[in-house]
Write a structure and sequence with these properties.
The chain is α/β, with parallel strands linked by helices and about 280 residues long. It has ten helices and twelve strands. The two termini are about 25 Å apart.
Length: about 280
């Protein structure tokens, strides 16, 4: 492990990160902080794993400091060198090249863990122990939307349908949102998260947090998509993202104001898919 071994939070970060990267067939990286991702990216054709990691880190470089990094591919030397440029608490990956281990040995504060790839057929339950010693045994959550084809089968609520590029972005952002503490939203473009809003008590607060983060780190939201883990309850949700130039939304639907939201999306040229599936996480 290196150093003194991982903390409970480090281990939980690794578990939640594995839940994210297991969705992707391509190389993928999740940078985790306090059980939530601060950045996620998936490889473009021919892209080096070190670059995939750098894009996930730089989605929110401030939150990434002292985080846990989870990868779904073997770590090579160049990726280890990229990981070593900033302070990383723990790295989890299926395996490591010997040259990568040599790089990590020079980083006394970084722990590395070898973990097998997650099996989609195995869904251990979540267990919570309460103060009175009673237990909550909760079925593990795994979205029913496992492929692009399944996403395309869902109804498009708006006049405009997503483009092929938008469909891919919507799918990836939906997979990420499934492992973010509610209320949550994910902004996604060019195979990476631009901002992730976590744990807010109102939906618009999560959206506003994302917009603020994206602006802080120089991310252009124009042409991006948004995933929301719960329905959009009010018109201000759509108006806020329309001002930023977002082009597509994926969300469960189910608000009493759904039809008004759809009309607002049509007015702004935003495509919207309703999954009929909430992705609330309250771990």
């Amino acid at each position: 492990w290196g150093k003194d071994g991982p903390s409970a939070t480090n281990i939980e970060d690794g578990s939640h990160g594995m839940r994210i990267v297991r969705y992707f067939d391509e190389p993928a990286v999740a940078v985790m902080k306090h059980l939530n991702p601060s950045g996620v990216s998936v490889a473009r054709k021919g892209e080096a794993l070190s670059s995939v990691y750098a894009r996930a880190r730089d989605a929110d470089p401030r939150a990434a400091f002292g985080g846990v990094v989870v990868l779904n591919r073997m770590v090579d030397k160049s990726t280890a060198e990229e990981l070593s440029k900033t302070f990383v608490e723990v790295v989890y990956a299926p395996d490591y090249e010997e040259s990568a281990i040599t790089v990590f040995q020079a980083k006394k504060d970084t722990r590395i863990g070898k973990v097998p790839g997650s099996n989609h057929d195995q869904h251990p339950p979540d267990i919570v122990v309460l103060d009175d010693r009673s237990l909550i045994l909760e079925d593990a959550y795994l979205t029913g939307i496992q492929s692009l084809e399944q996403l395309k089968q869902l109804p498009v609520a708006t006049k405009r349908s997503p483009s092929e590029t938008e469909y891919h972005a919507l799918l990836h952002s939906w997979w990420v949102i499934c492992e973010v503490r509610s209320n949550a939203v994910v902004f996604w473009k060019n195979d990476a998260s631009l901002a992730i809003g976590t744990g807010q008590q109102d939906r618009i607060g999560a959206i506003e947090s994302c917009i603020e983060k994206a602006h802080k780190f120089g991310h252009d939201l124009k042409g991006s998509v948004m995933a929301s883990d719960g329905f959009l309850p009010k018109m201000d949700n759509v108006e806020a993202v329309a001002r930023e130039g977002l082009t597509s939304i994926v969300q469960p639907g189910g608000s009493v104001e759904d039809q008004e939201l759809v009309r607002a999306c049509d007015q702004h040229g935003i495509a919207m898919i309703m999954t009929g599936e909430r992705a609330f996480r309250h771990f």
